[in-house]
Amino acid sequence: MHAPPGMGTMYRAVLDTMAEHGPRQPPIAQIARLAFTNRQFIYRNWPDLTVLFRDACAAELDRVLHRAAEVPGTWDDPLPPTCHVIAQIVRAARMLREHPVTLATARTSPDLCLTALAGPVTPFHTSARQWVRSCLYTLHSGRELEARAEALCTVAAPFALVPPTSSEPAERARLDGQLRSALHLCLTSGPACADCAERAL
């Protein structure tokens, strides 16, 4: 007998299964095995399994964005405020496009990536926009903050939702550099500055 799994264990089991099989109908038996429980426990607590899948993905998105905000190496040698925001967004986009669930979605259900880019706003889009607004609050306020956040999300979305064609470091650097330059144009109307070019994070 095992104690009922905690939410973190359940979410990790869901995400690991999605990373292997894709987001459409991940095998419940595998989720149960990874969570050290059984299918009856899952069905009893989540009669609508889409709620479990959605909540697991929402919690993971929050975790990734929280980590992305903690840009390494900037406490002892801080970036200028605008460059710091750009570094946070570039890091978030990289972490999302290289996430195992994103890679599995592109492999098994590429239409979902397209829907995420061009479809209606979902709670996931809303969470991402709120995170970008929190990054920008020291630079802008009011309507300008909202407009800038919307523009930055639109620019960053393809870099976050379309997996790289290669796992080579050069491909990562190329994509990060393209996004960094685009974000600089959105925030400063100029190309990427020396701080960003020399201290890619």
Could you walk me through the main structural features you see in this protein, from its secondary elements to its overall organization?
With 201 residues, this protein is mainly alpha-helical. 72% of the residues lie in helices and 0% in strands. The chain contains eleven helices and no strands. It has helices at residues 7-21, 28-34, 39-45, 49-69, 81-97, 100-108, 110-118, 123-136, 142-161, 169-188, 194-198. Helix 1 crosses helix 2 and helix 1 (7-21) crosses helix 4 (49-69). The chain is elongated.
Please describe the topology of this protein.
Layout: H1 7-21, H2 28-34, H3 39-45, H4 49-69, H5 81-97, H6 100-108, H7 110-118, H8 123-136, H9 142-161, H10 169-188, H11 194-198
Helix pairs in contact: 1-2, 1-4, 1-6, 4-5, 4-8, 5-9, 5-10, 6-7, 8-9, 9-10
Provide the descriptors you would attach to this structure in a database record:
201 residues, mainly alpha, single chain
Count of β-strands? 0
Return the structural class: mainly alpha
Q: Quaternary state, please? A: single chain
Report the sheet-strand fraction: under 5%
Major sheet, described briefly?
Answer: none
Q: If you average the pLDDT, what whole number results?
A: 89
Unreliable segments of 5+ consecutive residues = none
Portion of residues in helices?
over 70%
Alpha carbon gap, first and last residue: 46 Å
Radius of gyration (Å): 19 Å
Principal-axes shape call: elongated
Q: Please report the number of helical segments.
A: 11
Note the run of SSEs as H and E: HHHHHHHHHHH
